[in-house]
Amino acid sequence: xxxxxxAVDALLRGEVGDPFAxxxxxxxxxxxxxxxxxxxxxxxxxxxxxxxxxxxxLTRRAQGLFExxxxxxxxxxxxxxERSGRRERLRDPYAFGPLLAxxxxxxxxxxxxxxLDRVLGAHPLTIDGVAGTRFATWAPNxxxxxxxxxxNGFEGRWAPMRRRHPSGVWEIFLPGVGAGEKYKFExxxxxxxxxxxxxxxxxxxxxxxxxxxxxxxPTAHAWGDAAWMAARxxxxxxxxxMAIYEVHAGSWQRGEGDRHLTWSEMGRRLVEHCRNLNFTxxxxxxxxxxxxxxxxxxxxxxQYAPNSRHGGPDELRRMVDLLHQAGIGVIVDFVxxxxxxxxxxxxxxDGTPCFEYGDPREGEQRAFITHLQAFxxxxxxxxxxxxxxxxxxxxxxxxxxxxPLIDERVWTSPTPIGGVWDFELDSFGIRSGFGVHFMxxxxxxxxxxxxxxxxxxxxxxxxxxxxxxKIAADRYYFILEDQ
Length: 483
What we know:
5-stranded antiparallel beta sheet; 9 helices; Immunoglobulin-like; 483 residues; single chain; 4 domains; 4-stranded antiparallel beta sheet; Transcription Regulator spoIIAA; alpha+beta
């Protein structure tokens, strides 16, 4: 069936939500096959049938779009294209059928899939003898999702994905794309906005402040902790003695020139430290990918990727293996309850709330709690390292000396629920504490009922007791120390 000019224009604008309906091979009633190629920067495109049949030149319909009718049946083919004066052979990503098993999609839709990291994300594999990478993500309300990366100039028009109804999962197999390449998903939202998003299921990421995901190769690590794993199964953990050493990977120790240690370097140092002080376990603050190190790992943007400042997945495996072989258990903090609003990551992933609460009020409250917890850890660290209290500061201003431990931009901006951040020392009946001050002109003034909802999420459900309290008519603070 001829392709309309409107469909061509939509393809060129990056607005096609069902690319497999118009690209790739399409059998005709007379037995022939109509083929459309979609190749970035191509000036010429020849179709070579599998088995060495005669090559056929496809007609250029528009920039990057070639089409033609070839004899059928067509068991397989590849393209010979000319780009920048050079010829190369390519396989057509739109010649491959659906990739993910219905079983996996049904389990995912039911909320009962326990190994999504094996289904979604980027996975190098070989299909019908063709090496490439299978990409899949979840964007149920998107109008179009594309893979963008090093190979296509991070331009979203060139690799639009197939939507699998009714799961909201999008998938595509890209031949020739392999491990080590950077990528993101470009999403056309229902409101027409276009966003480039990191892969929520990526196994590896760029080192911040860069934000792309990286295609991780299959693991090459050979585990040597069989003895530890066998012994662990015989221990009654409820009764066995434990001495846990808690570690923040980014600030525990550094290498020469203040560089981050690799995971395996950290593992060797931790083995020595734990043996010297008789620790039985190491508990890591969150190790998943996070853009802001001052969050101590509690602002996660990639749950399936290790913090790239220290290395990739196999580096992390080597560290765990080293600790296990030394008889030291490993505990990792997991933070699934909240994440930052960075535009490249999880927030409003397809233009609508996917991974966050649909009620913006509850999302704001969770974000406020996240900041409270991060600032509390930073304040305790400051007092531990200096032996002093933070100095009192004016509302909205960062306490002196605290700047290296927090993101000053966050502190000096309005809080997620309105008002401004404030630190108090020896005032309002507390020794030290911080929280929100609802000054005039700083956003909505929240009432006690609203703030009590926050208290119930993480404290004792009372604004007069516990760590989070109302200390004045317009102030709600996290108490570091009472008078």
